[in-house]
């Protein structure tokens, strides 16, 4: 599945084509909800959507591309909210690193929760291959990524940190967060639905970034 660009083979240029794409996405979700992951094939999607398999293949290479497009549609429809959350995270970073990390972790997990709830078991098959940040960066190049804004946020609180390479630390935070979420989706997906999972992720990142009391300075 493509991750850093649109999963569509071609973009719709007419309202009829847009209606076809909508029918394909809706059929996919309907099959997942009513028939289950095992029944999800491109032939079945085309049948439920009321189109020919040839029409489906004009736009999508396979069912994974359809799923990626559903993920993109779901999350980009919330882009204004995501931008607000980005601004809120950056604003929080000025005052409290702990609050910033807590908010950042909660929103990151919430994104995966939404996709898991929409695609159910099929998301467990594709989640490693779907990268919303890469997709949104290509579509909205002015949107800051986590590794863009986090180093400066860390620098504001350097007295409380054990890390000194803020760019590397930002990458480690992103990789640890994403890696843990994806590994959990593989092994125990229902765990991401719990508050305990969010709390432990937050604690893990705080412990990585900040000094223990014996190392010196107290909190920000």
Write a concise synopsis of the structure shown.
Keywords: DNA-binding, Transcription, Transcription regulation. The chain has 220 residues and is mainly α. The protein has helices at residues 15-34, 42-49, 53-59, 63-76, 79-93, 97-119, 121-126, 132-139, 146-156, 166-187, 195-209.
Description:
Pfam families: TetR_C_15 (PF17918), TetR_N (PF00440). This is TetR family transcriptional regulator. It comes from Aromatoleum toluolicum. It is built from 11 helices and no strands. Mean pLDDT is about 85; it is low at about 1-5 and about 215-220. The longest helix has 23 residues, at about 95-120. The relative contact order is 0.12. The chain folds into 2 domains: about 15-60, Orthogonal Bundle (Arc Repressor Mutant, subunit A), CATH 1.10.10.60; about 80-215, Tetracycline Repressor, domain 2 (Orthogonal Bundle), CATH 1.10.357. With about 220 residues, the protein is an all-alpha fold.
């Amino acid at each position: 599945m493509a991750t850093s660009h649109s999963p569509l083979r071609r973009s719709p240029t007419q309202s009829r084509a847009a209606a076809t794409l909508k029918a394909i996405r809706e059929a996919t979700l309907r099959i997942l909800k009513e028939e289950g992951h095992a029944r999800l094939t491109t032939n079945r999607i085309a049948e439920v959507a009321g189109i020919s398999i040839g029409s489906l293949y004009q736009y999508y290479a396979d069912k994974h591309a359809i799923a990626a497009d559903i993920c993109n549609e779901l999350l980009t429809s919330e882009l204004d909210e995501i931008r607000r959350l980005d601004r809120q995270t950056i604003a929080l970073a000025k005052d409290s690193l702990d609050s910033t990390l807590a908010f950042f972790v909660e929103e990151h997990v919430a994104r995966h929760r939404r996709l898991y709830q929409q695609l159910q078991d099929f998301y467990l098959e594709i989640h490693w291959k779907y990268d919303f940040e890469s997709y949104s960066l290509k579509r909205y190049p002015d949107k800051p990524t986590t590794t863009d804004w986090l180093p400066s946020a860390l620098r504001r609180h350097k007295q409380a940190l054990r890390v000194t390479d803020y760019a590397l630390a930002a990458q480690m935070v992103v990789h640890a967060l994403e890696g843990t979420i994806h590994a959990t989706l593989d092994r125990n997906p229902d765990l991401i639905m719990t508050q305990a999972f969010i709390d432990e992720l937050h604690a893990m990142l705080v412990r990585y970034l900040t000094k223990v009391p014996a190392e010196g300075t107290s909190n920000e």
